[in-house]
Every structure is written in C-alpha cells, then in structure tokens.
Amino acid sequence: MKRFVYINEDNLAHDLYCDNRISNRKYTIWNFLPKNLWEQFSRFMNQYFLLIACLQLWSLITPVNPASTWGPLIFIFAVSATKEAWDDYNRYLSDKKANEKEVWIVKQGTKKLIQAQDIRVGNLVWLRENDEVPCDLVLLGAADPQGICYVETAALDGETDLKTRLIPPACVGIDFELLHKIKGVIECPSPDKDIRRFDANMRLFPPFLDNDVCPLTIKNTLLQSCYLRNTEWACGVAVYTGNETKLGMSRGIPEPKLTAVDAMIDKLTGAIFVFQIVVVIVLGIAGNVWKDTEARKLWYVRYPKEGPWYELLVIPLRFELLCSIMIPISIKVSLDLVKSLYAKFIDWDDQMVDLETGIRSHAANTAISEDLGQVEYILTDKTGTLTENKMIFKRCFVSGTFYGNENGDALTDAELLSAVSSGSTDVIRFLKVMAICNTVIPVQSKNGSISYKAQSQDEEALVRAAARLHMVFVNKNGNFVDIKFNASTIQYEVLDILEFTSDRKRMSIVVKDSQSGKIILLSKGADEAILPHAYTGQQVRTYAEAVEQYAQLGLRTLCLAWRELEDEEYQEWAVMFKEANSSLVDREWRVAEVCQRLEHDFEIIGVAAIEDRLQDGVPETIETLRKAGLNFWMLTGDKQNTAIQIALSCNFVSPEPKGQLLMINGKTEDEVCRNLERVLLTMRITSSEPKDVAFVIDGWALEIALKHYRKAFTELAILSRTAICCRVTPSQKAQLVELLKSCDYRTLAIGDGGNDVRMIQQADIGVGISGREGLQAARAADYSIGKFRFLKRLILVHGRYSYNRTAFLSQYSFYKSLLICFIQIFFSFISGVSGTSLFNSVSLMAYNVFYTSVPVLVSVLDKDLSERTVMQHPQILFYCQAGRLLNPSTFAGWFGRSLFHAIVVFVITIHSYAFEKSEMEEVSMVALSGCIWLQAFVVALETNSFTILQHLAIWGNLVGFYVINWIVSALPSSGMYTIMFRLCRQPSYWITMILIVAGGMGPVLALKYFRYTYRSSKINILQQAERLGGPILSLGNIEPQSRSLEKDLSPLSISLPKNRNPVYEPLLSDSPNSTRRSFGPGVPFDFFQSQSRLSSSYSRNCKDN
Q: What domain of life does the native source organism fall in (predicted)?
C-alpha cells in the first residue's frame, strides 16, 4: 500500500488520514467498566469465582451469606480496576500535554499557531531550535544554506549523538519566502514502525521543478519526538501523524511472559480443582445417601417426602460452594503486589548504580523477577556488553609494515610518525580514508577546538587517530569536506555515500578531489568484505595475516581500500544508483546490488586495529555465575579470533592446554556436516569441566546448521554449556535463543545495541545495558543495568530472594485456604453431611481478606541468608534453578500441614466446646481463633530474618483479630453479639488456644529440628554458620547432573528422550533423587563437592524442532 501526500494541501487528505492526536489510552470513560470487567473475567480463575458467587445467590444451596464471596471478589476486582484506571489516567495526562503543545504551520500561505493535535497530513510545519518534532516530517528547508540540520534522537532510539538530516536535492536553493508556496506530492509507503528506513519519492510542481522524481530516505526525515538542535529553523511537510507515526506504530503492550513459578502455580491450582471436584462428588453422594436413609427418619430435620427434580444437586452444589475457598481468591492480587515490590527493590538498589554515568538499574517488567533466580543459560553480546565500547586506535598495517607492535600504540610509533612527516604516499592515503570515509560530524567550538559527533564508535576512533597524525577532518559544508594536513587544506566533494549494512559489512564513499578533479572510491569494512574484492594481482595474503595477528590480540580490525574511478564509469553507475534509490519496492536490495557493481578491484591500503577494553568486573562476574551453574553463550558479529580472545580474557573459556575449542566452520553443507559430526562425537565422550570445552561457530556455518541440520545442532546445544557464535546477524541471535527455549531451558539475553533487541525480546528474560550505543536495548528489555557486572547481583540476590519469597507466599496462600476448608469438611461429618458451614459469612470474608493476608505480605522482607553469604557462595542458586522450593513435593508438604492442622483445630475445638452445650457461634469462633493462632506461628516459623515490621505484622495482626472481633461482638445486629467477650473471660478458651498451638506446631517443630540437625540442607548449614559466626570455607562447584543422550545415534540425527526428569537439580542432600554424602567433623561447612559434568545420567526433554 502506498500513501500520496500533497504538500501544502491538507484539505485533500483531510478525510483520508488521521489527525495528529496522540492516544496511548487503553480505556475511555464510557468503555472502562465493561472493557475492564471483560479483561478480568477472561481469566479462568475469575470466571470460576464469579460462578461460585452467582451460585451463592441461590438461597436453597448456599451454606453461607453470599457476601462471603462477593465481598472479596468485588474488593479484588476493585483493586485491579483502580490500578488500571490510575495507569490509564496518567497516560491520558501525558497525551494531553503532548496534544496541546503549540506549533507553527503554514496555512493558505501564512504562518499560524495551532495545537499539535490539529496538524494534518500535508501541512507545512515550522520548527525552531530546540523544538520537539510533533509528527513525522519530510524536511523541505533549513536555516543552513547547504540544507543540513541536526537532530537529537534520544527519545526515539536512545542515541545521544546528534544526527544530520538533509534537505532533498530538489529543495536545495529554494528561497525562504518561497517555501510558504511550495507544492508537490510525496509517494511513500503506508505507516510502519521501522525507524531506520523510509523509502519514498517526491515530485515538486512547477514553478519549482517540473515533475522530476527525487528519492527520499530516512536522512530526509524528522521523526516524532526528536529535537531540533544547532539549527535556527527547519521546515517540513507532515507525512505521518498521530498514532500512525513511526514512534506511534512502535508503541504497544508487549506480550506477557509466563514465569516458571506462574506455570507451576497454574498446575497446582488445576490439581486442587480436580481434588475439589472429587471431594464434592464424594460428599455429595454421601450427603444424599444419608438424607435418604437417616435424615427422613428424624423429625427435626423436616426433609419433605418428595422434592423437586433438582433435589439431588442441592447437597453437591452446597459442598461445591463450601469447598470453593480451596483455591485462594486473593492469590493473584497478592502475587502482583509483591512482584511490584520486587521490581522496586531493584530500582532502589544503590549497589547497582553505575557511578560513572549515574545510571540506576531499572525493572521495566514487574512480573518476572522470580525467573531471574531460575535462569540456566545466559546469551550475551560482546561489544558494549562485555567490553566498554570505547574504541581506541592501537595498531595498523600499511604496505607491508606493522606500526605500533613495539610499544603497543601506533600513534606514538616513531616509524609511523616519520612516514607521515616524510609524506609517504601509502600512509597518507591510509590516513585520508580514515578521515573521510565516515559519517562523522565535526563541530568547531568558539575557541577553535574541534570535537566529533559520531554514530559509530569505530569511526570516531579512526577520525581522532587521523587527527592525531595530522590528517584533521576540520569541516563538513554540505557535500564538501575539508581535510587539513599539516599546513595545507584539501577539499573533497562527496558525490555519493554507499552506507554500511550488516549484509555488506562495509561502507564506501565516492569523492571528487577539488584540486585534481579525480573521482575516488574510498572503502572500509570487515576483512571478508574487502579483501576478496582486491584487484587481480594484488597480494592480499600479508593483509590477511595482519588481520589474523591483530585478532589474536583481541583487537577489532577494519580493512581500508581505495580505487580511482573513470568519469564515464562513475556517471553510468550514478544513474543506476539514483534509480535504485528511487525504487519503492525492495530498495535496500536494489541499492546493495548497484553498490556491488562499483565496489570491486580495490587497492588494499592497510589494516586498522582498534582496542575495545573489557568492562570492570566482567571476568569475576562470569566466574561467579558459572559457579552458580549458569551456562554462557557469546553471540557477536565480530571476527572469530577476536571473539575467542575476548572469551579467554573474560574467563568465558579456559586457556590451553586445559581449554578445548571445537571449531564448526564451512561454506558448504558437506563441510558443516563433517565438522558438526566431529564436534558432536567429542562432546558426547568428553569429561571436561563446562568452561573447558566449548564449540565455536560462525554465521555462515550457523545458517547451514539451523536450516539443514537443526536436530543435530539442537543436540549440540543440549550437550554444550559454553558456545562462541561469531559473525552472527540479529535474526540469528534470536533464533539461537528460541532454540534453547525449545529445549525447555530458562534463557536470559543481555545486550546493549539495537542489533540485540530481537534477541532480548525473544528470551525469557531480557536485560539491556544502558551503553554508548544508545538505549534501544535497555528500552526493549525487561531489566536495564549500567554495567555487565551488575548482572551478578541481579541474579544471585534479587532473583534468588524473589523466587524464595514467591514460593513461600504462593504455597502459604493455598495452606490457609485449605486449612479452613478442611475444617468445614470435617464439620460436615457431624452435621449430617448436609453441607452446612461452621463459620459465618463475616468470619470467612475477614479470614481471607484481613486476618491472614497482612503477615504474609511482609515476607517480601525475608532473607534466608545475608546478601554477603549469597554472593560468596553462588552454588546455592541451584535450589532455585531446580525448583526446589516450589514443586509438587513441597506443595504436598504444605497440603499435609493444612490437613494436620485442620484435624488438630477441629478435634480440640469439638472436644472442648461441643459437649458443653455451647452455641454454634462460640464453637465457630474458637475454631477460627485456633486457625489465626496457628497461621501466626507458621509464618513466624518460616521467617528467617525478623524485622520490626515483620513482628508488627505477625503479632499485631493477632492482636488486630481480637480488636476487630471485640468491636463486632459489641454490635447487637452482628450475629456475634457478646461472643468474643464471653470467650475471652473463659480460662478454657485460652487453654484451648494453647493446646491447638502446641498440638499443631509441636510435630512441625520436631520435624523441622530433625531435618535441620540430622538432614541439613546446604542452606541450613550456611544459616548455622551465619548465626554462630563461624567461618564459612570456600565452596567447590556443584555441577548439575549432565544430560545423557543415546550413544548410538546415527550421524547427525537425534533420538531424544520423550519425558524430561521432573526436577532439574544438582546432587543435593535433601533431594529425593540424590544420595546423601557424609562429611567428616574435620571439614566444617566445606560441603559442596565438585562433580564431574558426566558423573551421572541426566535426561533433558527437547521439543521437536
């Protein structure tokens, strides 16, 4: 689809395209209630509770007042709706501020001030310096005579460096006054969200230009939310407005990510639901049988002889309503609340602040913090993520001579300085390519000093190095660049720029020497993009060896080349280049094809080597996270040798002879097949440590492997815990993440640039580094950090604590609901299996909403171990990775505890009060009191680190229970009049509470003491060490049980096990699948023993790809 924009004719497009009103709102006043209710009731659990609430309106079957369900349901829905309404209101205020901003447009030949929301497609918009661009514009005029203006795009892509924007050639030279009257048409594509691309054509109407087509690119546009800088004024025509701008099309709510904990909670909820249905069916049948055999004989029951047709359903439905509280109605709101607090803890963490830039860590996704503690694979970019992305020109190779090898810095190499001063032809040409072949903008200050604005750190490093060697890029005036060498100034006219793309991997520029008139093609790029295109007869072997040598040192390399063009050759090519640039279909492909026609027969001039230093703390962070059992894959676009050297320097892999790198290279299917088979056989039999063996693959071989040998490569991914993937594209990075996810691994992707966005969004957890390449990655990520080293704290501290707390909160929520439900079930056995409720409606409602919620919410402050201990012993993260705190086994423990406590409360209460001719309300209050006392002690027992707030929540909540019930007991109409006053005056009530607590908590304490003393987990031993203040020795590595695949696999085929082991775990003493180790008394606390990665069999499910 195409769009035709008529310049300065807004009436023609008035009804075709939207106005410039921005709307990020999700609701309106009129649709908020129905839309929000629809969204909330689209969830199964909410539908279930609504059904239960509606059934309670049937007075014949409801055992309690409907308010006991409707009250909490309305409260929870109101909380969720209020949060949504508040968020939407803030979006409305933000939209209102942007929509009412005043801007200048041209209407009927005169300037007019209007609100931004009234701009229409086709309007001429005038901007002044520092103005925000209100919509997507095509630039038509600027204050600069050469038609250049500068914009800051930080709000769009996070890059703080200024970008140049150019007036289309057709508009150059149009007088300021005539811009008011300009007419024409722009043919452009339909709105899209690609901020890097705009393929359009423009025709101006006479008298400006007679229907000559002028191609437009993204460099001729000013996009919404950018700012005009260092330019007095600019004028443009609106092409996309409102929510159809590129920024507006990019907005949207990302797809929610389901954490492993959420998935487990869903499974447990399903299991409880099945159990509930079974209980309802059994008790319903029993109730009907008792009614027909016994109840009709009892005169006081008063069952009619014959009932309606639905009589058999009454008792089962009563039990369904009675047992509906098995599934806690408040669990989702509670989890959402604590997860928001987890995210705030990350935002508030002062130890995760980059002191250099002042950037704090930020959690953009508040729903997945516990997944940080269950990560198994980390896929990381290299440049700007592991390294600083601060490029420094260190060495070079020109015409057979190495410069900088002696002292490590070419800029101070006496031999190079001598070659420059003597005017060596090859060195001078080398410096000219460094200074001219780029998109750098020189900015001259008032004192005469020159600074450079560059989108590429590599280009800035080359330009600065050339300036240090007296080849100074001093000025860029339109299509003319001025280079100052020693005392003379050389001027070149830029004829065409062949921009860098990830496919071509090179950038070229066609310039004309203003003195000699020669047309020259200057190029720079990766060695595989330059060296194969050298002219016939040039020996490129020495240059390839230089590239190899520099890569061995971990330096980034760029090859520089040059070619003189004949005038006729250039003119013929320029026509094709213009046609390709004018194409609206496949423009990028056509331009690349035309560029190929010119970029050949290069004269290779030299090789530049650039250093990109490692960030502080990277080796230590990787080493610590490896001890925690995390596996690392490096995904980079850099050369293989450079990537390997960086991997060696940051502890990614072990150096030789201990380390073993398995290469997978090849340009054909057969070569890749042989290499992949060889590596697979090695990986199947190796007994090396995880970081001592790694496979290395380049982008070309990876593409073949993923396309033709995907199953074999998947097996390799399962077997290998370390990988280096070089020369990979952004789409390949995302494919590798998807591959590991398909094998049911929890993945974390971390990067800093726009090329990492797809990988970050594909992973279970995306982490962006706020780096020198801008904020694109950080904005697309779930979490943003200032430096790679903060990843250690993000995972080990925040991830682990979040998982532990969520595991306790979710299971405790089920425990307290099951406890009260079991008591109701037991009561039915002494009430004729009739489905009668022991507790009144007010008590049930208060129990779920008030009495049991406050203490558990402060569990977000609980820490089983100090942060120092967690960081010192990262091996304990295995408990989280294995799902050791939340799984069917642990849930069964909580289920059993709730059943046992229900028996204790019911038996003691009934024996204490039922035979004393007490009122029903008294028995109910005693049982409820026992539940509240037990839950207070359960929370206290499960709390590891007490604070004043936790004490207030636990014991203050207990006091609050009595205060509330004293108030309710003072109300004659409450149905509980004087109940609590009478009970509190009876010594038997307090004796009953003591018996319930002793009977309920005694066995639990005894079991906990036994496990803590005789079957201590590793965490228990660390807790003892912390409390005793004793020394904690350095811990060895615990390796997860390795995967055992079929040894007799046919070459390049996989026969994976169909069922995955239910728990992915290391050999831990309290694991049901492990063998306990005994430790001698002479080695206190040194309990983690090293395990060979192939010491025991382990199967891992991998979905068929």
A: Eukaryota
